[in-house]
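We modelled the chain as a single entity of 631 amino acids. Its sequence is:
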Amino acid sequence: MPQDWVLIAKTLAMALLNPGHRELLGAGLFSMNHAFKVGTIKEQHYEMARLARWSEKVGLTSVLSSWTADDCQSYLLEVETTRSIAARKNAQSLLRRLYTCRGILGERGLLIEVPPAGGKAGSGEILTRPIPPEVFWPLIRACWTYIDVYAPDIIRARDDIQDMIFASSQLKSDGHGKTLGRRESRLRIDRALDDWLASPSGFVPLHILTYGNARRGEVNWGRFSLLFSPFGGGKHVFEGPYGKGRRTLVEDAVRNGFPTRDGFSSVELTVVDRADGTRGPWCSGFDDLRLHRELVQLRNACYIFVSIMSMMRDSEVRGITSGAIVTHYGAPAIESRVHKHQPDGGTSRRWWVSDPVVKAIKVAEAIALDENKIFGSAMRGESTGFKPFTQIPSFVSWVNSYADDRGLQRIPVQHISPHMFRRTMSIIAANEPDGEIGLGITLKHNAVRALSNATTSGYGAVTPAWAREFDHENKNVNAGELVSYWSRNSDGQRVAFGNGEKGFVDGLNRVSATLESAGKIGDERMLRNLLRDEFASIRLGTINHCLGDPLKARCLEGQSEIVRAGGPIPSMCQPAACHNSIITVEQLSIWRGEEADLIEKLSDRKMAGVHRARLKKQLQDVRKVLGSLRT
């Protein structure tokens, strides 16, 4: 490789080996979430050597900032012609990396962005797979439980432990033990230990986790002395000739029934419902190691929750700093920077967010050590590099390890990347009215048409798994609305009219009979499930409800088998004639209003005969419906 290209190769190699380095993050390089393998870096260097030789041949220099788009395309064409299409992909990856890392390469960085070798299809299709519903819902619930339920306890435990360690350090720095002499200091420690073992509130702290020389369930000698020593804690209290006697005293007390406790923090923990039906604290206690693990997972929960609910890119979420919550047009918003397709350093933008996201950001701020990077280290002495590709599976594994004791649902293990959060939430948002417009704004896509483009549509494109999930959710919503009809029917009230009344009431009665036979009267959850299953095909409408039975559907008469397979057609509904149609008391005012409107229109004597005949037919149908309601 020519000498003037060696510095470029070294810089890229260091960046790929240390993706979480502060200098890289400061330059806006958030996309490299994991260290690359040495073999990958070697392949990149081989490709760079070919690029260097080609540039010399065509008269270009290693100052890549002077290269044009035509220069890049010429090289790619040369590679595809003389080598292979697969080699062109490697060349494209190298050129894209030289563009991505332009912030650390200076004038030797490429200023032209080469299109990716694969990825998005020309139709706007997004190849990123969404997270399946069976993984997504337990994941988002676990994150919110950490933020809403566990976070206050974790933060209080952190403050409690830090205060104890600080107080111990102050006692040591004051030097009281040294001024008193060894014998007096020893006697005072012994008296303090005796007082602690005699105290009704005393306890012996145990290690919660196995780590290094520590074993779960063993006495935490290093932190025990924090609780009673008048000269500050430390292992020295239970070491040496006098320390051995103190250990024996403590061990004898424990054997005689003196209480022990996981950890040494005195924080009262929140009680939760567990999987086995019991209730208890969500964790057994806190010591240094448990605190560190929980702080890390709390940070991970905040990152995942904010990424999902805001639909921000990974680089945008990791660029959030303290004080990023602002008000934008009267609503809460996050302020961060967009790096994709933007000049070096990115462009400041704002994302509207909900109150739960605001809470997650505030929790992340409360545990962050660096105000310029709230998703960095959560404990001092730990690496500040935050790597989502390792922390996301770490969170899933941690939740699954303690799910039963903490009342959490297990999360199926599957590959999850930050970009999948954005894709999944886009599908959910696009399922709502005007969702594509909202997505165009939230995803920060450059608009080809009003507020959305083909990329936005691609993000919101539903998958078969999510289509089934939405259908299931609609059935649950319908079941919730059917509860009131079931209740009134159970009280002997008439709940429906029309040709489908008998079928509807029979279904409600079957649900009541099942509840009674199972002895579950009053179990609302079971009631909703039974209603959902009994009326799985019902469609709740504004002017009437459709039972959805294809065999009774008037709208499907004379239709082809293909059309009939799709079920009833709401736009062709004939409430006055169809045996699927039911009309409730709440819908009666709509029909009466329609009757009054038709009568008023027919009072116009100048109306053409053909229009009068059509309106009379409509009035006849409306009165037929109202006639059944009036009986």
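As a brief sanity check on the tokenised model: Confidence is low (pLDDT under 50) at residues 119-123, 445-455. The radius of gyration is 34 Å.
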